Amino acid sequence: MDSSDFISKSRKITCREAESMIPRYLAGSLSDKDLAAFLNHVNNCNKCHDELETNFMVDLTVQYLNEEDPHGSFNLKPMLQKDLNEKTAALVHKHRMKKLRVVIFVLILLLAALLILDLTDVFGISEVIADLFRSAGF
């Protein structure tokens, strides 16, 4: 499964829900589950994407006008796309790290189980390893 599949498989939300999430999206305060649902929706709904774009433009314009020394270009559409891409990438990274932690935890449990079994001489792993080292000349 592609690591961004969880975004497309996130819960479906209505336009009304997506529009109510826009202020929290702009503030960066959506939970991971809500962010995945929001990103999935606005990437597939032109109406909500346009609404987000309008709100994004207003928000950035206000920020820009409040700066004492405005600088740089002010091309908002690429700025919104960059913001969407960055938040998607961050969410995908978070999802991957969560999966990696689970895999590492399972591996630690397996190693602990093997160590316990070795200490109780169920498998005799220590002897096999010692024989391998002796046969290799160590």
Q: How would you describe this protein?
A:
With 138 residues, the chain is mostly helical. The chain has one domain (5-135). The chain contains six helices and no strands. It has helices spanning 5-8, 15-27, 32-44, 46-66, 76-119, 125-135. α3 packs across α4 (46-66). It starts with a helix and ends with a helix. The relative contact order is 0.09.
Count of individual helical segments: 6
Low-confidence stretches: none
Gyration radius, to the nearest Å? 25 Å
For the report, how would you describe the main beta sheet? Answer: none
* Approximate helicity band: over 70%
As for the number of domains, it is: 1
Query: What share of residues are in beta strands?
Result: under 5%
Structural class: mainly alpha
Order of helices and strands: HHHHHH
DSSP strand tally: 0
Shape: elongated
**What is the terminal-to-terminal distance?**
44 Å
Put the structure in a nutshell:
The protein has 138 residues and is mainly alpha-helical.
Which descriptors would you attach to this protein?
mainly alpha
Secondary-structure map with pairings?
Elements: H1 5-8, H2 15-27, H3 32-44, H4 46-66, H5 76-119, H6 125-135
Helix pairs in contact: 2-3, 2-4, 3-4, 3-5
